[in-house]
Amino acid sequence: METTAYLTTLGESGDPDALFRLGYRLAFGRKRPRPTQWKKIVALWNKSTDHGNNRAPFLLGVTYDHAEGVKRNYKLAFDYYKIAADRGNLTAQYNLALMYRDGAGVQKDLSRSALLLEDVAKKGEPESQLNYGYALFHGRGVAQDQKKGVWFYRASAKQGNRMACYNLGLCYKLGHGVKKSKALAIRWFTKAADTGHRKARSQLKELKAA
After folding, report:
1. Closest by CA position to 141, among listed 122, 106, 115, 120
2. Cα 145–112–102 angle (5° rounding)?
3. What's the pTM?
4. pLDDT at 32 over 60
5. pLDDT digit string (tens) for 146-160?
6. What CATH number does the domain located at 1-108 have?
């Protein structure tokens, strides 16, 4: 493991990974449970971003999105997520989709949101699969297709996403997008309940009492 002094030397030469890691240590180091040097952290990550790193702009986006040590600024969060997404960061692309969906830092655009979600969902990211499934299921920014929505719910659920498991349970309980099946509804509600999903527990209780 490189020392901070060694990373500092690399950072002074413009090494993007070293600059990122120096900021990361200040923000998340084990001896720093509550970081205080946010100006330095932001400055290091900005330099790392300027030198082509894709993780630094993502964390800068998170910083401004969630007001971590800085004043919340959705426009800056959007801009940094966009840089990271353009450099291949899938989580940044997912966050951009949510910002388009909610109109945070950018004009609301459900179609653009759905396109971004679809791209990341097809690459296997479970939260994107869940949210793209929801967009399909309810026709939000994309033509409504409940069967296809169920497909993406299932893909996400198979990766352990508890909300996707719960949504699948509802689909099988109500027969939306799939053939109604009490057994499969119980199966997916159970998977969600096992992760602590309270509504899934209530659904299980209702189904088992019927």
Report:
1. 115
2. 95
3. 0.90
4. no
5. 999 999 999 999 999
6. 1.25.40.10
